[in-house]
Specification:
about 725 residues; alpha+beta; Beta-galactosidase, Chain A, domain 5; TIM Barrel; Immunoglobulin-like; 10-stranded antiparallel β-sheet; 44 strands; about 20% helix
C-alpha cells in the first residue's frame, strides 16, 4: 500500500511505496513533478538507499533524450511520466505490482513480479497509445534503476565491480570481474557541467543468436556497501544492457531491441499497445548470493516438466564420435554399448535424413534416409527402445536448405525477407514463424516423427543467424524479428502442450542461444561444441553463471585411445550438470567401459542434489587458460566440487568462505579407481589445499561434508 511520509519542510508529502516479499523489497517514490523512481532496496534484512532515476524510460521519434545521448535512460518521456495509480496482488506466493503512469499520449504499465523465497524481481513495461495520432517507439527499457548509495561522500563507483561474460563458438562463458571505476568509467568532473554524462558501458545482441557475443547476464557488487545484483534479459533475440554513471551515482538499464542497436521501431496507432521483453534482477549482499537468487528464479519460472527433476542420462552419437554420419552399421554397436553403461536416452544426431552425404543445404523435409538405414530408421529406433532407452533425433527446425524441395513448396512469405528477397545465410533460408504455413510445417514434422517412431527426445539445433530481421509485414526489420522471436516461443509452447512428456534439448552451434526465453521452456542446454577435452573445463565450470546446473549439458566424451586419467577428466567435465555422454564406447575395453558406467552411476545418484544446489567458484570464475579450474555446487548435504588440473603446479588452494569455522570431511566422488588427491583443510580461513598426482591433465569430483567446530582447532587434514 502507499503510505505518506512527512517531508522535512512545509512541502507536500512525497508518496512512498514499499513492495516485495520477505526476502526482497523495492521502495518507490514520486510526486506531482517527478516520475516514479526506485530509491531503496531491502535485502537480507537491510534497507539500502539507491540512486534515483525514472524507472520507465521510453525513446520515441518525437521525444528523444535530455541531454542528448545514446543511452536507454535520460529520455524525455522518462522525465515526463507521472503516476496515475497502482495495484498489488498476491496469488500462490507470486506477488505482482502494476504501476500505471502517463506521458502525453503514452500510458505505461510497469509490471513487477516477485516470488516467495526468491530474492529477485522480474519486470516488463506495456505501453498504450491513448491519443488520436501515432507514436513511433525507438526503445523501451524493461528495467531502469540506480544501484549506488546516493549519500556516498566519496566516489560512488569506487568500490563497485562488474562481472560480465562473453560467448563464442567453442569458447562459451568467458567471464571477467572488472572494477567499474577505471577505463570504462574514468572521472569526468561532470559535476562542473551541470549535466549527466552521455556515454555508458553497453552490451548488445542484434540477431537470433541471443548469446553469440556478449551474454544477457551479469552482476554488480560492492563489498563496502554489502549489496550485489545479478540480472538476465529473458529474450531469444535482440537485447541491450547498459551500465552508466550520472552525476549522482550509477544505474543499470535493461531492454529488448532498440532502434540504434538492432533496427527496431514500432508504430503504435490509437489504442494500440506494445509489451517490452521480460527481465529479472536478483539481489543479495554479495555476488555469489545474487547468482544464487537468480538460480532460484530460474528454477521457479521453468515450465513444469517431469524432466526438470528426472534428468535422464543422454548418450548422443555426434561429438568426437559419428560427427553427423550415422548408419545402421555404426549405430547398433553404439546402442548396445550405451545401454550397457547405463544411458537412459539415445539421441541420433545430424545426418539421419541424408541420402547424399552433403546435407547442409538440403535440409527441411526431415524424412529418414533410405541409404543410411537399409532396414529403415525403424530398425535403429526399435533397437534403442529394445535396450530400454528413450529414442531421440537431432533436428534443426527453423531452417530450410536452398536445395531442399520444401524451399519451393512453402510460400515465400513463410521465410524471413528483406525487400522481397528471402534471406540466405550459409546456404539456408530461415523460416518466419509468424506465418501459419511455417508453423504448420514444423508442427507436422514434430507430430509425424513422434507418432511414427515413438520419440521422446529432440535435440533442436540452430546453426545460422539470419541477421537483424525481416521487413515483411513489420514496422521495421527489428520489429519483424521480434515478432518471429515471440512466435518461436509460442510454437515451442504448442509442441510441449501436445507432447507434455517430450524432452527437448536447446542447442545452437553450442550455446549461441542459451537465454531464458528458451530455457524457461526447454529441458537442457548444450554448453559447447568444443572438441578438445582439455579446453572444455572453463566452459563447464562457468556454465551455472548463465544457466541452471541441471540444464548444463557439458559433453563427457571419453575415447578408447585415452589413458585412465584423460578418460576420467572427460567424465568429470559432465559430472556437475546434466550428464551428456558421447564417445566410441563400443571400441573400449571392458575396463574403460566400466569407468564410464561408474560415472553414469554416480551422475544418477547426484542429479537430485544438482537440481537444488547453488553454484560457487572456489578458484574464482575461470579464465580460458587457467591451469586449475573448479566448480562447487552447494546443497543441504554439503558441497560437490569438481576440480580440473591442466598443467602448472600440482597444488591448488580453494576458497570456501561459507565453510569457515567448520570441520570438513573430504571424500572422493569420482573417479574411485584412480589415486585420491591429497587434501588439507584450514577451518580458520575456509581454504582447501589440494595436491594432485603426476598426471598433468587430470580431474576429480569431491564431496565436502561439514560439522560445526571451533576455528581455534585450526587446520585439519581431509583425505590422503
Amino acid at each position: 500500500m502507499t503510505t505518506m511520509h512527512p517531508a522535512p519542510t512545509d512541502a507536500a508529502p512525497t508518496p512512498h511505496l514499499e513492495w516485495g516479499t520477505d526476502v526482497v523489497a523495492l521502495t518507490f517514490q514520486w510526486d506531482d513533478d517527478a516520475p516514479v523512481a526506485c530509491n531503496a532496496v531491502r535485502v537480507a534484512g537491510r534497507t539500502l538507499p539507491i540512486h534515483r532515476i525514472p524507472f520507465v524510460e521510453i525513446l520515441t521519434a518525437d521525444a528523444g533524450h535530455r541531454p542528448a545521448s545514446g543511452r536507454l535512460v535520460h529520455t524525455e518521456h522518462g522525465l515526463r511520466m507521472r503516476y496515475v495509480d497502482h495495484t498489488e496482488t498476491v496469488h500462490d506466493g507470486v506477488h505482482t505490482l502494476v504501476i500505471r503512469q502517463r506521458s502525453g499520449d503514452l500510458e505505461a504499465r510497469l509490471t513487477l513480479v516477485a516470488r516467495d523465497g526468491v530474492a529477485a524481481v522480474s519486470s516488463t513495461v506495456a505501453l498504450t497509445n491513448v491519443g488520436t495520432g501515432h507514436v513511433v517507439l525507438r526503445s523501451v527499457a524493461s528495467w531502469a534503476a540506480g544501484f549506488t548509495d546516493p549519500g556516498a561522500t566519496d566516489d560512488a563507483l569506487s568500490d563497485w565491480e562488474r562481472v560480465t561474460g562473453e560467448n563464442d563458438w567453442l569458447g562459451e562463458g568467458r567471464w571477467t570481474r572488472t572494477p567499474l571505476r577505471g577505463p570504462d568509467f574514468v572521472p569526468l568532473a561532470e559535476h562542473l557541467t551541470g549535466h549527466n554524462p552521455r556515454g555508458a558501458l553497453t552490451a548488445v545482441s542484434t540477431g537470433t543468436w541471443s548469446t553469440a557475443h556478449a551474454l544477457p547476464v551479469g552482476a554488480l557488487e560492492s563489498r563496502t556497501t554489502g549489496l550485489a545484483l545479478a540480472w538476465q534479459i529473458e529474450h531469444n533475440g535482440a537485447w541491450r544492457w547498459e551500465i552508466g554513471e550520472d552525476t549522482a551515482g550509477g544505474y543499470l538499464a535493461l531492454s529488448g531491441p532498440t532502434d540504434a542497436d538492432s533496427a527496431w521501431t514500432r508504430v503504435l496507432g490509437p489504442a494500440e499497445s506494445f509489451a517490452s521483453v521480460p527481465v529479472t534482477v536478483a539481489f543479495a549482499p554479495d555476488a555469489t548470493g545474487a547468482v544464487s537468487a537468480l538460480t532460484d528464479h530460474r528454477r521457479a519460472t521453468r515450465r513444469p516438466h517431469p524432466d526438470n527433476t528426472a534428468m535422464p542420462v543422454v548418450f548422443n552419437d555426434y561429438m568426437n564420435t559419428l560427427d553427423g554420419d550415422p548408419t545402421t552399421e555404426k549405430l547398433l554397436p553404439l546402442i548396445r554399448a550405451a545401454a550397457e553403461v547405463g544411458a537412459e536416452v539415445f539421441c541420433i544426431d545430424a545426418g539421419w535424413y541424408d541420402d547424399s552425404g552433403h546435407w547442409w543445404d538440403s535440409v527441411g523435409e526431415w524424412l529418414p534416409s533410405t541409404t543410411r538405414f537399409p532396414g529403415g530408421l525403424h530398425e535403429v529406433i526399435d533397437a534403442i527402445r529394445a535396450e530400454g532407452m528413450v529414442a531421440g533425433l537431432w533436428l534443426e527446425p527453423e531452417v530450410v536448405g536452398i536445395r531442399s524441395p520444401l524451399a519451393d513448396r512453402l510460400p515465400a512469405e513463410a521465410f524471413l525477407q528483406r525487400h522481397g528477397e528471402r534471406v540466405v545465410e550459409h546456404d539456408r533460408f530461415h523460416l518466419d514463424l509468424r506465418h501459419p504455413a511455417a508453423r504448420a510445417h514444423l508442427d507436422d514434422v514434430i507430430d509425424r516423427l513422434v507418432a511414427d517412431f515413438g520419440l521422446g527426445f529432440f535435440k533442436m539445433d540452430y546453426n545460422i543467424n539470419p541477421g537483424p530481421g525481416t521487413d515483411l509485414d513489420a514496422d521495421s526489420v527489428g520489429d519483424g524479428l521480434l515478432g518471429h522471436n515471440r512466435a518461436v516461443l509460442e510454437w515451442l509452447d504448442g509442441v510441449l502442450d501436445r507432447h507434455p512428456s517430450l524432452v527437448i534439448e536447446n542447442c545452437s552451434s553450442g550455446a549461441m542461444r542459451m537465454d531464458y526465453a528458451m530455457l524457461s521452456r526447454l529441458a537442457m542446454q548444450s554448453t559447447s561444441d568444443q572438441q578438445d577435452f582439455r579446453k572444455y573445463p572453463p566452459i563447464a565450470a562457468a556454465a551455472p553463471m548463465a544457466i541452471l546446473p541441471e540444464q548444463a549439458a557439458s559433453w563427457a566424451y571419453p575415447q578408447p585411445e585415452m589413458d585412465a586419467e584423460e578418460s576420467a577428466f572427460c567424465l568429470v567435465t559432465g559430472m556437475l550438470g546434466r550428464f551428456y555422454v558421447s564417445g566410441h564406447l563400443n571400441r573400449m575395453t571392458p575396463a574403460q567401459r566400466a569407468r564410464v558406467a561408474d560415472a553414469i552411476s554416480v551422475a544418477k545418484r547426484l542429479r537430485g542434489e544438482i537440481a537444488s544446489a547453488h553454484p560457487h567458484w572456489p578458484l574464482g570464475l575461470p579464465a580460458w587458460e587457467d591451469p586449475w579450474v573448479s566448480l562447487d555446487l552447494r546443497g543441504p548435504d554439503g558441497d560437490l566440487v569438481s576440480l580440473w588440473r591442466r598443467g602448472g603446479d600440482d597444488m591448488a588452494s580453494l576458497s570456501f568462505p561459507h565453510l569457515v569455522g567448520h570441520d570438513i570431511e573430504v571424500t572422493p566422488v569420482f573417479p574411485l579407481d584412480l589415486p585420491s588427491w591429497r587434501t588439507e583443510w584450514d577451518a580458520t580461513t575456509g581454504t582447501l589445499h589440494v595436491r594432485a598426482g603426476d598426471a598433468r591433465s587430470s580431474a576429480r569430483t569431491l564431496r565436502l561434508s561439514t560439522r560445526p567446530t571451533s576455528v581455534d582447532e585450526g587446520a585439519r587434514t581431509g583425505s590422503d
